[in-house]
Specification:
Helix content: 55-70%
Number of helices: 11
Order of helices and strands: EHHHEHHHHHHEHEEHEE
Number of domains: 2
Shape: elongated
Structural class: alpha/beta
Number of strands: 7
Distance between the termini: 71 Å
Largest sheet: 5 strands, mixed
Radius of gyration: 34 Å
Strand content: 5-15%
């Protein structure tokens, strides 16, 4: 008797990507997760390779450049204050340069001149790196922002200008030391010009958005003259309660939303929520629902007013059918919503007690939230009026 075992499923590695919440760049954490290794093992490997002719630095920079960020909506944030660390190290180098300015340096000594060139070059590089890091990276960091970037950039510029001034007034004893003046000057120009990179990005992004908007407008005009008019004609000829009219209405709504909403995310406000709900009802019931909004309203789609309005719209679609109008009016005093249909009407007192849709889901919910709800119905139709005053809150 032979037995066979099923092969073990192949292990799927996590994607090679950087975390948006990282220490500096997220390279080591992303590699460790992808390889299934310990984080400090990967970091130690980078350090060892960095001592081997700088190979670790090049590898880290290559991974930083080509490893994508993990999916997410928020900009990346870094826990380590890299800009401030570079700035403090540059300030220490500036203090060393100042001490040389007081006591003199490189007086006929080539070794002293080389040490001076090394310190000045490192100080200029650190201060320049701090300013560039703050402008190009920390500016979009959610934990820091533009104000932090401006402060670091100003301090870096002051530090470079101070080193530049010290080198001008000092009297180096060796001729090569005169070339050191160009290092902080070049760093100062790089920090000051880095602000134009951000401006250029904004202008480029605005240009792309303007081109997209022009293309969208041309497409909207073409579709409005052809597809949208055809869909509107189908609705008028077929009648509000027919299947063809409901499908045409849904397609028209989706096409208009795609054309005119653009790339902006849904705000989740009351008019947007009720329009989406109206589109869903039109697919399930033989109705046509028009949602109109006027005035300003800060009411969100998750509030009691939206829930009550959805319940009233569902009742109108289920029991009345035909054409339903929803009117939203916002003002400083509050928000009013009117839901009207042309059904045969009903009397609230005659509704059985076990049916709590109107009493509790509409009127009762509005009362508990600090608002009011009323129903007026006759043989010509039904109107539900919902009012939520400004500052209305759920009551216990």
């Amino acid at each position: 008797m032979s037995s066979s075992t099923a092969p073990a499923p192949a292990r799927t590695r996590p994607p090679l990507e950087r975390d948006r919440d990282c220490v500096v760049a997220g390279v080591s954490a992303g590699l460790a997760r992808h390889l299934g290794a310990r984080l400090w093992t990967v970091r130690g490997l980078f350090i060892v390779l960095a001592l081997c002719g700088g190979a670790g630095v090049l590898l880290y920079a290559w991974c930083w450049l080509f490893m994508p960020w993990a999916e997410g909506d928020k900009p990346p944030t870094r826990r380590m204050p890299v800009a401030w660390m570079l700035l403090v190290a540059g300030a220490v180098g500036a203090i060393v340069v100042l001490s040389w300015g007081i006591g003199g340096y490189g007086a006929g000594d080539p070794e002293s001149a080389q040490r001076a060139a090394l310190v000045v070059g490192a100080t200029s590089a650190l201060a320049t790196g701090a300013g560039l890091w703050a402008t190009l990276i920390d500016r979009t960091d959610t934990a820091r922002g533009p104000r932090h970037a401006t402060i670091v950039r100003v301090l870096a510029a002051v530090l470079l200008a101070g080193v530049f001034g010290l080198l001008l007034v000092m009297r180096p004893g060796a001729a090569p030391a005169a070339a050191l003046v160009l290092l902080p000057l070049a760093g100062l120009l790089a920090v000051l010009s880095s602000t134009f990179v951000h401006r250029w990005r904004e202008l480029a992004g605005e240009r792309v958005r303007r081109i997209r908007e022009e293309q969208r407008s041309e497409m909207a005009a073409h579709l409005h003259d052809s597809v949208l008019q055809t869909l509107a004609l189908i609705q008028n000829r077929a009648g509000a309660s027919s299947e063809a009219a409901r499908l045409a209405r849904a397609q028209e709504r989706e096409l208009r939303a795609w054309l005119y909403d653009g790339d902006a995310p849904a705000d989740g406000d009351l008019p947007t929520d009720l329009r989406d709900y109206a589109g869903a009802l039109e697919l399930d019931f033989p109705v046509r629902i028009d949602v109109v909004s006027a005035g300003l309203s800060a009411e969100r789609a998750s509030g009691a007013l939206a829930a009550s309005a959805r319940e009233a719209m569902l009742n109108a679609a289920r029991h009345a059918g035909g054409e339903i109008s929803v009117y939203i009016e916002g003002s400083a005093a509050g928000v009013d919503v009117f839901i009207r249909d042309r059904g045969r009407g009903f009397t609230l007192d005659e509704v059985p007690g076990d049916r709590l849709g109107v009493r509790e889901s509409i009127i009762g919910r509005m009362r508990r939230s600090g608002g009011t709800g009323s129903v007026r119905s006759d043989e010509n139709g039904t109107e539900v009026h919902l009012h939520l005053p400004t500052g209305g809150e759920p009551r216990g």
